Amino acid sequence: MLVSGLLATGATAVSGQLLLPLAGDLSRDDQRGRVVGSIASGILVGILLSRTVSGFVAEHFGWRAIYVLASAATAILAVVVAAKLPRDTERHGGMSYPRLLASIVTTVTAHRAIGVTLFIGACSFGVFTMFWTGLTFLLRSPPFSYSLARIGLVGLVGLAGALAARQAGRLHDLGWSSRATGAALVLALASLALAAAGARSIVLLLAAVLLVDVAIQGIAILNQTRLFSLAAQARSRVNTAYVVCNFTGGAIGSLLAGTLWDIAGWHALVGGQVAVVVSALSAWTLNRATLASADVRRR
């Protein structure tokens, strides 16, 4: 029953991802990075804040209460979205839905920069899920032995990092998307070095949480804004490819987190994350010129 419920939730919890290409369509070219950055930040803020809320609710009211709360919040949001979102009646491209789905592959292969961006996105989100899954293992174990509520509070530091990174979309508007992506990957490596050193220090761990969320959120915003610029007539399709790649990377990251933790604990888990970031950084280095050519300076 649990697996069935999780499958149904995963199949239907896509509203935020549908909003992103819609916002890209509604935005002016010189605003798109800022607008997409704000909405993408909201999605990650929700992910991080949910850790804090769920930890508190589960500890004080039981694990079932968080699902009741989430159901109520979803019902309210459904009403708000139906009332407030503009009607999107345009039939993009005049294709049927099956043909639109089939055209995702051709859309992705039309630009080399799209494939590179999808790979970097999958790697970065895989690191994100590895980091947060592994952090829960670490904080539940000695010397920390934190409760669920205290672990949830750590998410507030990540929330600050996500909010700090929301301006990354402006860098795309200025034509600096490729360089900023490389810098964010380097920042991710630095944050993982702090995480490795903080296996017994909550101060170092909190610094790592802040920096890793700045880096990963910055990469996500830059990636999605770049994709929307490369495929202006197929934003929903390229966003579909991006989300599929991201959450595939995230699922693999969660699986690896448990496996690496069982093998050798926190340091093995951090080492796995470093390897994934290095792979993404290598892809960025080899394709830097391609990504740079996709940058469009906005005035």
Describe the structure.
The chain has 299 residues and is an all-alpha fold. 83% of the residues lie in helices and 0% in strands. Helix 3 crosses helix 10. The longest helix is centred in the C-terminal third of the chain and has 52 residues. The protein starts with a helix and ends in a 5-residue tail after the last helix. The model has no long low-confidence stretch (mean pLDDT 87).
The total beta strand count reads 0
Rg, rounded, reads 19 Å
Count the DSSP helices. 12
Helix content: over 70%
Keywords:
single chain; 299 residues; mainly alpha; globular
Can you summarize this structure?
By secondary structure, this protein is mainly α. It has twelve helices and no strands. The longest helix is centred in the C-terminal third of the chain and has 52 residues, at 235-286.
Write the layout of secondary structure elements.
Layout: H1 2-12, H2 15-26, H3 32-61, H4 63-84, H5 97-109, H6 112-140, H7 148-164, H8 168-173, H9 177-197, H10 202-230, H11 235-286, H12 288-294
Helix pairs in contact: 2-3, 2-11, 3-4, 3-7, 3-10, 5-11, 6-10, 6-11, 7-10, 9-10, 9-11, 10-11
